[in-house]
């Protein structure tokens, strides 16, 4: 039980660190300059919408004891602040929910076919821990239910399943081969299936895979197909490496570094736990005490639920 508690805490904090320390390196010159201004306001490493929406998910799970879509929609909309780095599509959607539009309508008003971005995946790991790998079908259904509130496209939901189920399985020391096998049972879109096949080849490589190769073959963009399996692969490949090496690797992969950092951080944290996180980085994290206390309450609830 102590180990599970440590791993859940580690995943929550590692995800926030991956987000906060990846944010300054996201995108091009304009994006980096904007974040240099926004990210320096608190005097700490400021986290983005990735962590804010993960916080919303955790608080909703603690309050409702399950994925409750209307509650999630209200929390997402209430927490929205453009200065957290929300994308323009997410901003429009959440503003509409805040103004009274139901999420069932809002989630297709910006993108008629639904968003296929990675915004559902960046906040999915807590759902994986809450439902647990031993309840795999319920876990996957809950992840899709939580994701569809903002991401109605199957690819966006598949990306979330990749991160949530992987985090839950890694927490139980499941071998990589078994994780890949289990994921294939639930991924519905061809693009994500193909990316998993590439990731399997890279994870089996005899020599270390360079960040540029990961970016080239798996992607580093904001679409779920271009970042979720990327983060999955990085988190698993570097799960025995120091956390600072993970951060450096993500920076070199480039692209959507904050979200890839948040997702890969959750996988790494599920494998390594809170005690392996570097204290010097935690000291520099915005609202550390709040995140620590929330992570502890969440871990307590999971231990009570499953053990």
TrEMBL record:
Keyword Magnesium set for record: yes
Cofactor: Mg(2+)
Gene Ontology MF annotations: hydrolase activity; metal ion binding
Record's protein name: ADP-ribosylglycohydrolase
Swiss-Prot/TrEMBL keywords: Hydrolase, Magnesium, Metal-binding
Family from the record: Belongs to the ADP-ribosylglycohydrolase family.
Residues where Mg(2+) binds: 48-50, 256, 258-259
The species this protein was found in: Candidatus Electrothrix marina
Record-linked InterPro entries: ADP-ribosylglycohydrolase, Ribosyl_crysJ1, Ribosyl_crysJ1_sf
One Pfam family hit: ADP_ribosyl_GH
Organism phylogeny: Bacteria, Pseudomonadati, Thermodesulfobacteriota, Desulfobulbia, Desulfobulbales
Gene3D superfamilies: ADP-ribosylation/Crystallin J1
Cofactor remark: Binds 2 magnesium ions per subunit.
Top-level taxon of origin: Bacteria
